[in-house]
Amino acid sequence: MAATVTPHIAGDPAALTARQRELIALAGRIGRERFAPRASRWDREATFPVENFADLRDAGLLGICVPTAHGGLGADFATYVMVAAELGRHCGSTALSYNMHVCSTMWSGFIADALAMNAAQRADHGRIRAIHYARVIDDGCIYSQPFSEGGAAAAGKAPWGTRALKVEGGYRVSGRKIFASLSGAADYYGVLCTLEHPGVDGGSLRDSLYLAVPSDANGVSISGDWDPLGMRGTVSRTLILDDVFVPEEARLMPEGLYWQAAARYPHMFATLSPTYMGIAQAAYDFTVSYLRGEVAGMPPVKRRMYPTKQIAVAQMRVTLEQTRALFLQTAREARVDPDRDARMRLYAAHYTIMENANEISRLAVRTCGGQSMLKALPLERLYRDSRCGSLMLPWTAELCIDRLGRECLYEAGERDEAIES
Ligand SMILES: Cc1cc2nc3c(=O)[nH]c(=O)nc-3n(C[C@H](O)[C@H](O)[C@H](O)COP(=O)(O)OP(=O)(O)OC[C@H]3O[C@@H](n4cnc5c(N)ncnc54)[C@H](O)[C@@H]3O)c2cc1C
After folding, report:
1. Hey, where are the domains in the chain?
2. Is the full-model pTM beyond 0.85?
3. Ligand 1 centroid vs 122 CA: distance in angstroms?
């Protein structure tokens, strides 16, 4: 690594715990040595980074948010997102897919712990999640998180079209999930669906149910191709669930709990942006190396002496530091029932990271110039990958702005008088 490349995604190492420093350093080492050299392959082939997941498994990182009592690393929210950002510096597709896996353990772990349950529900949840944790820790299983359906459900505006019917010993699940990252690679698909109540039509968001569907269950299939602009290694094809039986132990959260989580723990939806924080850092790092004539495999031509380059890189650094400041601030504010300001700061942070990752990558291409966007170098991939962030539901850039604008102007429960025509 060139001396000028930021060694640490998380800014001031003195502000971190020893455990955080250790895990971020581990992610950095695996990322630099293993993920970065392989990243162009997954991108070129649009194939899943199987070897990278084997490395994550070997390092114990599949269990990063599994409690230590269950053999995991017991990371809290702040620790996880910093590790994810560090991985995102080296392979965006791997970091984004890894996030889908980790969320299954995080949502059923410290997020569920922070929510209200009665004693029987908590005991039952404890029993069931131990089964899921053992699959991750003992068997190295990979979970994914397909919730998008192409309608309003993934934006949190309508009940899930995927339905679950309670039957003897479990549930029967039917539906269709688009953009199912890790399709064909995950052992379990963590599916959001609507629990149907006999005799009741439709169901509501309160009936959301979160189930781990085994990839080899009868009725599970994958369709469609995957040839997108960026994040090509996520292999997010379409998942079809045709009357799939899953046992009760498939529950990743007790019935009814997902709705409470979505309402009370908004940070659960902000785990996609750390990948893009890493991409922003990588685009900046590349630009500094390139302008200094230090990119491996390139002639050592310096371009740093031109004032316009210095101004551009300064603009990139300003944007990067603004982004990182919000990222770190909100990482440390994750808790159940954050106050209104913290919630609005979270929307602002998520929006800022997603938009600025693309802005910094755009500036990087313009500043470094033509040779920098050849496929032999990582910058054009960073540019394409960075474009995907603000499109991801439930918090696309547009929906963050919608939420923020409304919450800035309305107190909880406030409505306007009907406007007479
Ligand atoms: C690389 C990649 C990986 C992905 N991986 C996963 C995954 O693992 N799991 C998963 O579930 N999804 C995943 N997604 C899907 C992603 O979260 C979105 O669901 C998807 O990008 C939405 O595409 P769409 O065209 O269906 O959006 P649409 O729902 O058609 O929305 C289009 C735009 O309209 C706006 N919009 C949507 N709904 C509303 C509304 N109610 N009010 C106002 N504006 C609205 C939003 O800004 C949105 O960007 C992935 C996407 C990408 C690009």
Report:
1. 13-142, 144-261, 266-409
2. yes
3. 32
Dihedral of the CA atoms 369, 371, 377, 381 (nearest 10)? 50
Q: For residue 148, how far is its CA from the centre of ligand 1 (angstroms)?
A: 7
Query: Mean of the pLDDT values across residues 317-331?
Result: 97
Q: Give tens-digit pLDDT for 355-404.
A: 999 999 999 999 999 999 999 999 999 999 999 999 999 999 999 999 99
Compute CA 219 distance to the chain's CA centroid, rounded to the nearest angstrom.
27
C-alpha 214 to ligand 1 mean position (Å): 24
Instruction: Find, among 307, 285, 292, 283, the residue nearest to 359 by Cα.
Output: 283
275 ligand 1 Cβ < 6 A: no
Ligand 1 and 231: CB distance under 6 A: yes
Nearest atom (ligand 1) to Cα of 181: 8
Instruction: Classify domain 13-142 by CATH number.
Output: 1.10.540.10
Site of tokens 């250790």: 22
Q: pLDDT tens for residues 63-116?
A: 999 999 999 999 999 999 999 999 999 999 999 999 999 999 999 999 999 999
Distance from Cα 377 to the centre of ligand 1, integer Å = 29
Q: Structure tokens of 71?
A: 């053999």
Q: Compute the distance between CA of residue 57 and CA of residue 98 in angstroms, rounded to an integer.
A: 11
Return the closest-CA partner of residue 152 out of 198, 194, 98, 110. Answer: 194
Ligand 1 centre distance from Cα of residue 39 (Å): 24
Q: How far is the CA of 394 from the centre of ligand 1 (A)?
A: 7
For 206, residues 6+ apart whose C-beta sits below 8 A from its C-beta are 256, 259
Dihedrals phi, psi of 110, to nearest 5 degrees: -70, -20
Separation of alpha carbons 154 and 176, rounded Å = 12
- Is 179 close to ligand 1, i.e. is its CB under 6 Å away? yes
Instruction: State the CATH architecture for 144-261.
Output: Beta Barrel (2.40)
How far apart (Å, rounded) are the C-alpha atoms in residues 250 and 258?
Answer: 14
CATH topology of domain 266-409: Butyryl-CoA Dehydrogenase, subunit A; domain 3 (1.20.140)
Question: Looking at ligand 1, which residue's alpha carbon is closest to its atom 8?
Answer: 181
- Find out whether the beta carbon of 393 lies less than 6 Å from any atom of ligand 1: yes
Residues contacting 399, CB < 8 A, separation 6+: 155, 393
Q: Would you say the CB of residue 356 lies under 6 angstroms from ligand 1?
A: no
One-letter amino acid at 404 equals L
How many CB atoms within 10 Å of residue 18? 7
Q: Does any ligand 1 atom lie closer than 6 A to the CB of residue 398? A: yes
